[in-house]
Amino acid sequence: MVGIKDVARRAGVSIGTVSNVVNRPHMVSASTRARVLSAIQELGYVRDESARQLRAGRSRIMALLVLDLGNPFFVDIARGAEETAQDEGLHVITCDSGHRADREVSYLSMLAEQRVRGVLLSPVDTSGAALETFRRSEIPYVFVDRRVPADEASSVSVDDVTGGALAARHLVETGHTEVAFVNGPSILAQCRDREAGVRSVLDASSARLSVLETSELDVASGRDAASRLLGMSPRPTAVFCANDLLALGVLQGMVAAGVRVPDELAIVGYDDIEFAGAAAVPLTSVRQPARRLGRAAAELLIAETADGDEPVARQTVVFEPELVVRASTSLTRSH
Amino acid sequence: MVGIKDVARRAGVSIGTVSNVVNRPHMVSASTRARVLSAIQELGYVRDESARQLRAGRSRIMALLVLDLGNPFFVDIARGAEETAQDEGLHVITCDSGHRADREVSYLSMLAEQRVRGVLLSPVDTSGAALETFRRSEIPYVFVDRRVPADEASSVSVDDVTGGALAARHLVETGHTEVAFVNGPSILAQCRDREAGVRSVLDASSARLSVLETSELDVASGRDAASRLLGMSPRPTAVFCANDLLALGVLQGMVAAGVRVPDELAIVGYDDIEFAGAAAVPLTSVRQPARRLGRAAAELLIAETADGDEPVARQTVVFEPELVVRASTSLTRSH
DNA sequence: TCATTCGCGTGAAACGATTCATGAGTCAAT
DNA sequence: ATTGACTCATGAATCGTTTCACGCGAATGA
Question: In this complex, which protein residues place their C-beta within 7 A of any atom belonging to strand C?
């Protein structure tokens, strides 16, 4: 593998000069620069990041560790993060913990060994030991889609209580009195908060609430939930799901069972992923600004790792969700 | 940042011994080992991969560079690749070129600088200059979801010609004579092959084929295609889409326009992503074994980079696609 | 003419691990 | 008592960069 010293020899200069050509071209005379550059070309020299990083002590890579890449919501976060990273000349590597704490731990220790610049983290469990050991590595991290106290870390999130309330209010206002909430695992703060939002609205109304908890936040769990809903009596006339994957699963289960949506059952999802609007009965959903979430988190992380003088203050950014009403809750468009 | 020499000092041994404790524990006596391990614990020592890699000359990371992470098909490939990588103690970093050649180039040069173990590549354009310069870096790569001549590189793909034929035959056999093929950009080999498959079947039948090309392989393009289809006369009674995202877009556009699926228009997608089966009118689709694709590609790459004696022969693995028939083409289930 | 500045280039010292030849110590066998 | 075999630990060399103090020569100013 050709290294900097091969280039130096070929160009008849010292290795220090080659390094300067690559990193501070203005410090080198035009003629030498040209000679070195053509040597680089001819030899096909590619700088070795590991050596560079060893010297520098920090890498040019930031990591994004998400709960589930199968959920387009997180893919959008990744895209946002990549956008700002690129502006800073950094790269993002995306890791998928698949909701599993052991994989989260494994990735975190890998990232610590890599000495990544920082980590954008959407953790399975905040209180977990996973983070506890990672903290000692001194690698900065920012929470994404999870609010934490500012003294612990910066975080960028969306107000899930409001989001839940938004959905619930919409259902109450459209006249539903028998409402179900299909929630994901309650170890997830997002799920707990959305439920809190739902309850705050429904408790103050005359509607009745049943809560179903699923083990995963995916389409298959949604289908399961659908069959449970079908067995309930009285059967709810509206269901709010903790995310769009669940909602799509419920929708499919209902359509398969001949239940008309929204006539017999209104459905509200959460995240407003692209597939929500693209469903044959387009889903009403609570939109989260996923891309902006990713951008903002990356910006915070970059600010924290800027080689400035003073440590930057931790920040807590909270975005507001927005209800997007579509056919799955509006009778007017049906049929 | 605590390094190996801090540990050595604390434990009262040489750095070589610490290294042995970490990498070849059996070569160290039990008592020293215990002493070193507790020093590691107390100091919170985390090995620095960049130094390790500098010495070793190769990294423990393999990369997967895909066309579009927004497409669940590629997420499944990533999962497959990660499964086998994990078995080998490797890590995968997933990069999303978003169908853009410039990002592909940028990622490839980053990966070359990182001296990754190898790259699983789903390239925008095989003939591209992107690859040409990457080749010089000597980093092994395996094509995923794209067949190439075995003398160039190993590849793992699915037979797209057969896949296209499968879909077309299904439509012909269910009696359609006016068929549309909504294809993605023809620079993609996948798209060209699927079209070839479609033509091979339809040319031999009495059905008529119209081909619409879209600029992207996403849901929005599918919606566009739907409106174009609506303007055609005679209007096709069946449409095959080059992937499920397009198909979902078409489905949505049609349902919004009041066209009944499958009664007035049958739709076939490609990839069989989870959302295809979860659509309110579940999509008939050509299934590709995405996870196995990822696994197989990673296995090939690992075989090529095994530090064995002889270079391993290049391999070309081709999987067979499979038609999954659902409601979007079968009148029997409708209403 | 001499001193000062400036522009360019050099060479060596890091960075933090791995690896390997070497040596120190112990034990058993001759 | 000497040898050989074996177990552990050592310390130096090495990987490919970056960085920095320094030196050389030319240009500038007095």
Answer: A 12-17, 20, 27-29, 31-33, 51, 54-55, 57; B 1, 3-5, 15-16, 19-20, 22-23, 45, 47-48, 51-52, 54-56
Q: Check residue B333 and give its pLDDT.
A: 45
C-beta pairs of A229-235 under 8 Å, 24+ apart in sequence:
A229/A180, A229/A182, A229/A253, A229/A254, A229/A265, A230/A254, A230/A257, A230/A259, A232/A180, A234/A178, A235/A178, A235/A265
Task: Provide, as residue numbers in chain B, all residues whose Cβ is less than 8 Å from the Cβ of A222.
Answer: 278
* The domain over range B4-47 is classified in CATH as 1.10.260.40: yes
Q: Of B151, B238, B152, which Cα lies nearest the Cα of B202?
A: B238
Q: Sorting pLDDT into bands at 50, 70 and 90, what band is B133?
A: confident
Quote the pLDDT of residue A309. Answer: 65
**What's the confidence (pLDDT) of residue A281?**
85
Alpha-carbon distance of A281 to A69, in angstroms, equals 24
B257 and chain A: CB distance < 8 Å anywhere? no
Is B280 close to A274, i.e. CB distance below 8 A?
no
pLDDT higher than 90, residue B306: no
Residue range A19-75, pLDDT digits in tens: 999 999 999 999 999 999 999 999 999 999 999 999 999 899 999 999 999 999 999
**Which residues does chain B have within 8 Å of residue A96's beta carbon, measured at their own beta carbons?**
78-79, 82, 94
Nearest CA of chain A to the CA of B53: how many Å? 7
Mean pLDDT value across residues B230-241:
96
Residue of B254, B255, B275 to mutate, interface with A, max A Cβ within 10 Å: B275
d(CA B191, C1' D18) / Å: 47
Cβ of B251 and A280 within 8 Å? Answer: yes
B79 CB within 8 Å of a chain A CB: yes
Band the pLDDT of A332: cuts 50, 70, 90. Answer: low
Pick from B332, B297, B4: nearest CA to B153? B297
Min distance B135 CA to chain A CA atoms (Å): 10
Under CATH, which architecture does the A59-158+290-319 domain have?
3-Layer(aba) Sandwich (3.40)
Query: How far: A153 CA to D19 C1' (Å)?
Result: 34
DSSP assignment of A270-321 equals: EE--HHHHHSSSPPEEEE--HHHHHHHHHHHHHHHHS--SSPPPP-EEEEPP
Q: What is the per-residue pLDDT for B281?
A: 85
- The per-residue pLDDT for A209 is 97
Contact B215, B191 (CB under 8 A): no
CATH class of A160-287+323-333: alpha beta
Question: Which sequence spans correspond to the domains of chain A?
Answer: 4-47, 59-158+290-319, 160-287+323-333
Task: Please tell me if the domain spanning A59-158+290-319 has the same topology as the one spanning A160-287+323-333.
Answer: yes
Assess A251–B contact: CB distance below 8 Å, yes or no. yes
Put simply, whether B166 touches A (Cβ < 8 Å) is: no
From the list B44, B49, B96, the residue facing A113 with the nearest CB is B49
Contacts of A207 (CB under 8 A, 6+ apart): A171, A172, A176, A177, A178, A179
This prediction has a pTM of 0.94
Please check the confidence at residue A333 and state whether its pLDDT lies above 70.
no
- The pLDDT value given to residue B332: 57
Q: Is the bond preceding residue B234 a cis peptide, omega within 30 degrees? A: yes
Mean residue pLDDT across chain A: 93
What number of C-beta contacts closer than 8 Å exist between A and B? 136
Highest mean pLDDT among A272-276, B102-106, B164-168: B164-168
